[in-house]
Design brief:
two-stranded antiparallel ribbon, 7 strands
């Protein structure tokens, strides 16, 4: 076999290996940065006084909140009962295969827990986190509300805060540590979601 035909093949393999190794290092650093950002936001998320708490929607089971959504609602209830906010804003449209909006299910649950209906605003069009916040901002403006708490699971807060800042919403995060959702799985998904967000909205 002619040695001159072997060297280029080895050289190409080495280049491919170096490129793959560099990509792995870059992806590892990027994922590490996002996980650090998620954790930092969790640590900094503490309740404070505001005009309203925006409760981001999640899955519903029929006409009842899923266990994960109920965790968010119970956190919002605590904020309301402890006087951090005078109003709650529930947000979420109709999920695939559902008949009730997430917002309607959330509102009904809060009313059952003793929150007066006139203390609950509803946004029932949003299909994702970005729309949750965008349409909630419109409702806040309609009612003269300027400061908000954003209530969601803790792994979700970094992306929610970034989105709120891009819309110039004066918002502070309040996180829920889930006892019903598998944290590592959702954090991994959130790294992908944050990556998608940053690609569409560069720093």
């Amino acid at each position: 076999m002619n040695p001159s035909r072997i060297k280029p093949s080895k050289s190409r393999k080495q280049r491919i290996f170096r490129i793959l190794a560099a990509c792995i290092v870059i992806l590892g650093c990027w994922s590490g940065y996002l996980l650090w950002k998620i954790e930092r936001t969790i640590q900094e998320a503490v309740p404070r006084k505001a005009d309203v708490a925006i409760v981001l929607g999640a899955g519903v089971w029929g006409d009842r909140p899923s266990p994960g959504l109920r965790e968010r609602l119970d956190q919002a209830l605590e904020l309301y009962r402890e006087g951090y906010v005078p109003y709650l804003l529930v947000t979420g449209g109709v999920g695939e295969g559902k008949t009730s909006t997430e917002a309607a299910v959330m509102r009904n649950y809060l009313v059952e827990q003793g929150v007066p209906e006139d203390r609950i605003f509803m946004e029932h069009q949003a299909r994702d986190t970005y729309e949750n916040l965008l349409f909630s901002k419109e409702i806040m403006q309609q009612h003269g509300l300027s400061q908000a708490l954003v209530v969601s699971h803790d792994y979700h807060l970094a992306r929610a805060v970034d989105m709120a800042e891009s819309m110039e919403i004066d918002a502070s995060p309040v996180g829920v540590k889930s006892h019903v959702l598998y944290g590592p799985y959702h954090k991994a998904r959130e790294v992908l979601a944050l990556t998608k967000w940053h690609l569409s909205h560069p720093f």
